[in-house]
Write a structure and sequence with these properties.
There is one protein chain. A 7-stranded antiparallel β-sheet has the order 3-11-12-13-14-8-9, with helices on one face. The protein contains 14 helices and 14 strands. β5 and β6 form a beta hairpin. It has about 400 residues and is α+β, with helices and mostly antiparallel strands. The radius of gyration is 23 Å and the shape is globular. The protein folds into 3 domains: about 100 residues, no CATH class; about 80 residues, no CATH class; about 200 residues, no CATH class. About 40% of the residues are buried. Bound molecules: zinc ion (ZN) (2 copies). This is DUF1963 domain-containing protein. It comes from Ktedonospora formicarum.
Length: about 400
């Protein structure tokens, strides 16, 4: 662990060189390489996974120190990438090391640390939460845009936030923030992985248990097959389906209950490679009928094939022949569901673009996120596949982002 803290210390003591690209270039090559190596550590989720809260807190203070020394994103200034460092460190700490930002939230609110995600406020204390609500209500000047403040509140998402969001959503009155924000509180909740219920409560769209899915190297543990060819066919194009996830739950029965609060032997979440590649975001999702006993069929609720869904022939450049099957197994459980990198099952998705939880066509509530496959081996395509499930209706679908 020492080397992580030493690396942070080294970066802080060199901050005067990091704030400007021209100054940095005056350093010797060896010194530049050392600083790049130290920096690289903090973009690796694995760096944070073994930190204690106390070590996390030390690191968070280094991140703030870097920010205060001028290492932050500013248009028209090049800092050889170092300017992302404080944001990245604080986001990883918030997501992976519980308690690491305790006692620092008031300080986080006085700097503009809004970058990519406002999940850094997820564990904020009640005083900071109430301060954020007041800032939104009064329009008092603050380093954050109201969009960032609403997003921070959504990540906090506790009872007080649910009440406030519900009031803003269902009984909209004039509030300062509405002048500058077009999204609704409900869409901020979605970004943070939950939805407002009609009675003003919260329904989570992710499971709180999260496991790594590394490549399978032994016969032990729970098998999860990714990208294997299925017997069933797509009702739109007639091609055979592939699994996004095929989980052999009977290998480790308690895991099914722990992860999904369901008993079962096998959960298959398939996709049609043809129709998936031509489906447009947010509409015409391919829906499958699934259960926890191995059922995985193209659902007749899909109806007739939409016009934009083309059936590509094997000699067409857009034809996707198949997926490279990957045998994985249930790896270590992650400390938090917010550790979103890499292929995993349970926990939260990593959205490179925007949050995109599909709506169940039957009950019209948002579907739950089941798992994410990163670096999918599809020819001429790079990105993520996401599996979603409506437990109540037994329907699933696959999303994509790249
Ligand atoms: Zn199809
Ligand atoms: Zn449903």
């Amino acid at each position: 662990m020492l080397h992580v803290l030493q690396a942070a210390e080294l970066l802080c003591s060199s901050s005067q060189w990091l704030v400007d690209s021209h100054t940095f270039q005056t350093l010797s090559q060896e010194r530049q390489d050392t600083l790049y190596a130290a920096e690289g550590l903090f973009y690796e989720p694995s760096t944070y996974r073994s930190l204690t809260s106390q070590e996390g807190k030390v690191l968070a203070k280094f991140a703030l120190q870097l920010y205060d020394a001028g290492v932050f994103v500013e248009p028209d200034r090049s800092t050889d990438g170092f300017d992302f460092l404080p944001y990245s460190m604080l986001t990883y700490l918030a997501d992976i090391v519980p308690g690491s930002l305790d006692g620092l939230y008031a300080q986080l609110l006085t700097r503009n640390l809004n970058f990519q995600s406002n999940s850094i406020f997820r564990e904020a204390d009640p005083e900071t939460r109430d301060h954020i609500i007041t800032l939104l209500q009064t329009g008092e000047p603050c380093p954050y845009h109201p969009t960032a403040l609403l997003s921070a509140l959504a990540w906090i998402g506790d009872r007080r936030v649910q009440e406030q969001f519900s009031q803003w959503q269902y009984h909209p009155e004039y509030e300062q923030w509405r002048q500058r924000v077009t999204l609704t509180p409900a869409s901020f909740a979605h970004q943070a992985g939950w939805e407002l219920t009609p009675d003003g409560g919260r329904r989570d769209l992710y499971f709180h248990t999260c496991y790594d899915l590394p490549r399978r190297t032994s016969e032990e543990g729970l098998r999860v097959n990714l990208g294997s060819l299925q017997e069933e066919h797509c009702g739109w194009c007639g091609r055979q389906l592939f699994s996004c996830f095929d989980c052999f739950l009977s290998d480790l029965p308690h895991v099914s209950e722990e992860l999904f609060h369901q008993r079962g032997e096998r959960l298959r979440l398939p996709l049609c490679l043809n129709c998936f590649s031509t489906q447009s975001f947010r509409e015409n999702r391919v829906i499958m009928d699934v259960d926890f006993h191995g059922k995985a069929q193209w659902s007749t609720s899909n109806g007739a094939r939409p016009q934009h869904v083309q059936v590509y022939e094997p000699d067409d450049i857009r034809y996707i022949a198949g997926l490279q099957p990957q045998q994985c197994f249930l790896g270590p459980q992650r400390r938090t569901p917010y550790d979103v990198n890499g292929t995993h099952i349970g926990g939260c998705p990593n959205w490179p673009q925007y949050s995109d939880y599909p709506i169940c066509p039957s009950c019209e509530r948002s579907m739950m996120f089941v798992g994410q496959w990163e670096e999918v081996p599809i020819y001429l395509w790079e990105g993520y596949l996401y599996a979603f499930l409506c437990l109540e209706c037994g329907l699933s679908t696959i999303g994509q982002q790249h």
